[in-house]
Amino acid sequence: MVKKKLKKRLNYSNSNFFKTLLTSFIIIFIFSVLPNTISFIKNNIKSNQVVLNSSKQNFDEILDKQKKNKVLDGKINERFSWNIFEDIDVFGKNEDDDDPQRLSASTIEELFNDNGYNLDIVKETKLVNAGNQLTRLPKELKNIESPKKRKELFIKIVLPLIIEENLKIRFDRKKLFQILNKNNTTKRDKAWLDLKFQQYGIKRNDLSKLKIRMDEIPVSLAIAQAAKETGWGSSRFAQEGNALFGQWTWSGEGIKPLDVEKDEKHKVAKFKILKASVRAYQRNLNTHSSYKEFRIERAIQRDNDEKLDSLKLVNFLHKYAETGKEYTEVLKKIIKQNNLIDFDDVEILPTSLKMKNLI
To answer: Is the pLDDT of residue 356 over 80?
Structure first.
């Protein structure tokens, strides 16, 4: 009897020992593989991850590497690739630069190449990085012997400026239609509308006229006009006054043409930065009475759910230059020969989820 009890205790003891041993092995195994498992999950199972543009940061890093070049001082990093789309509200900020920096053509080319800014890639992806923006044209642009290279560099410079200004109008247009579709208009909506009526030169709160005026300018048309008015960026007005579109002024700051008659009072409008010239150009086409037919044709294309056609719209810009219809034919030729239509559906590369949802 005593032997049986002793044997039973021994078996029980052995059973506990093996259970404890097995539990210990399991615990050790779990803690040994847990870190690797967590790492695997983090690296391979990413739910609903949103990939956003980081090229702005890369562009800044590239600029930092160029500090040995005498042209690049401490101010260039901020002025050459400021964070334009940190938030949509930046559109309301003052973007004037009191001391805009001018980079050489070779430096710009190097920066664009390092940042992967290539027009063929832009056409393929239909995306352009808004960080690739300049405040002034390089002086050496007119000295580039190859017409193809000179045109490509000019397009690279003006393209993001034009698309960004169009995007601002698109955001406004989207908000306008949201307000129009509401049953009740809030005080905030009315204040916004009052501001837009003022910006677009509309009296008596005419919403139908605001819908027609508040719209984009086709990118291909804007590039063609900038190319024609500046000689692909080589004109004195573009170099000295950031004037991309040859707009005249009788009262504002401007540059006097050399061949103008003595009794002529007009000047070519001068701007602090290139972007301001683009904005003034868009406002000119969207508000001036000379381009009323242009706006009507654009509205017709919108009503028919058509893509804005620059080759049709250009026919209504005969009043933009003294040469009239001849001027519009030259623009058509520039658009066709340089395949500028390919840029009409290019978008800004989003730098925030908020912007991605708005575009």
So the answer is: no
pLDDT at 92: 36
| Residue listed under structure tokens 């912007």 | 355
Q: What is the pLDDT of residue 54?
A: 43
Of the chain, the end-to-end C-alpha distance in Å amounts to 89
Contact 166, 219 (CB under 8 A): yes
Q: Give the strand pairing for 267-269 and 248-249.
A: antiparallel
Task: Give dist(CA 248, CA 258) in Å, integer.
Answer: 14
Would you list the DSSP string of 149-172?
HHHHHHHHHHHHHHHHHHHHHHHH
Q: Left, alpha or beta for 55 (phi > 0: left; psi -120 to 50: alpha)?
A: alpha
Q: How many Cα atoms are found within 13 Å in the side-chain-facing hemisphere of 180?
A: 11
Helix axes 187-199, 147-180, angle to 10 degrees: 140
And the tokens for 339? 């395949």
Biggest alpha carbon–alpha carbon distance for the chain: 134
Mean pLDDT (whole number) for 91-99: 48
How far, in Å, CA of 1 to CA of 283, rounded? 109
Q: Which helix (H) or strand (E) holds 348?
A: strand 347-348
Q: What is the pLDDT of residue 157?
A: 96
Rg (CA), the chain: 31
Length of the chain equals 359
DSSP per-residue string spanning 21-32? HHHHHHHHHHHH
Q: Write down all domains in the chain, each with its CATH number in brackets.
A: 55-358 (1.10.530.10)
Buried b (16+ CB within 10 A) or exposed e, 12-45: eeeeeeeeeeeeeeeeeeeeeeeeeeeeeeeeee
H-helix or E-strand spanning residue 248: strand 248-249
Question: 257: burial class by Cβ within 10 Å (0-12, 13-18, 19+)?
Answer: middle
Does residue 315 contact residue 327 with C-beta atoms inside 8 Å?
no
Q: Where are the alpha helices (DSSP H) in the chain?
A: 2-44, 55-65, 76-80, 105-114, 119-125, 147-180, 187-199, 207-213, 219-230, 236-241, 274-287, 292-303, 310-313, 325-337, 353-358
